[in-house]
Amino acid sequence: MNAVEILVSTTEAGVPLPSFAHPGDAGADLTTRVDVTLAPGERATVPTGIRIALPMGYAAFIHPRSGMASRHGLTIVNAPGTVDAGYRGEVQVTLLNTDASTPLELHAGDRIAQMVIQRVEQPTFVVVDELPDSERGDGGFGSTGVRA
Predict the structure, then answer these.
(1) DSSP per residue, 49-84
(2) How far is CA 104 from CA 34, 39, 67, 75, 77, in A?
(3) Strands 74-76 and 111-119
(4) Which pairing describes strands 74-76 and 90-97: parallel, antiparallel, or unpaired?
(5) How far, in Å, CA of 22 to CA of 5, rounded?
(6) 3.40.50.280, 2.70.40.10, 1.10.760.10, 3.30.1300.10: which CATH number matches 7-119?
(7) Binning pLDDT at 50, 70 and 90, where does residue 1 land?
(8) Which of 109, 29, 42 is nearest to 72 (CA)?
(9) pTM for this structure?
C-alpha cells in the first residue's frame, strides 16, 4: 500500500507530531500545545502546534478521541472538524467539556483529538429542474422511525 505523504511543521520546538497509537489505526493522535482547564459546559479552541500541507484531493478530519469522550465527556464542537488542502495555519481544535459537574484539566502534550486523512472529491454541481426519484424520496430527519 502506498502511503500518502503529508508535510508537517510545528509552531515551536518540542511539539509532538501526529502519531498512530497502533498499526492500522485510522486516526493519528493530536495533542494540545498549551495547558487549558474546561469548566463544565465550557468550550475552548485549543492549539495543537502543528501545521500540515495536504495534497490536493485530500482533507483532514478532526474527530474526538473515544476514551476522552467516555471517561471525561470531552468532545469537539464541530466534529468532525475539517482541514482543507489549501490551509497552512496551525491546526486548532474546539473542545467542549460535556460533563455536568467536573472541570477537565488538559496539559501541554495531552492527546485531545485524532486526525483522519481522507481522499475527497471536488464535484461539479449541475442545476436541474427536478431530481430523479429514489426509494427514500424527500423524507428527512426521523422519517425512517426508531424501530426496524
Answers:
(1) EEEEEPPTTEEEEEEE-HHHHHHH-EEETTSSEEE-
(2) 14, 6, 14, 12, 16
(3) unpaired
(4) antiparallel
(5) 19
(6) 2.70.40.10
(7) low
(8) 42
(9) 0.89
At 15, list the grid cell: 511539539
In the numeric block, which cell numbers belong to residue 73? 465527556
Grid cell locating 14:
518540542
Q: Which amino acid is at 148?
A: A
AA letter at 24: G
| CA separation for the pair 148, 145 (Å, rounded) | 8
pLDDT at 72 over 80: yes
Provide the pLDDT confidence category of residue 57 given band limits of 50, 70 and 90.
Answer: very high
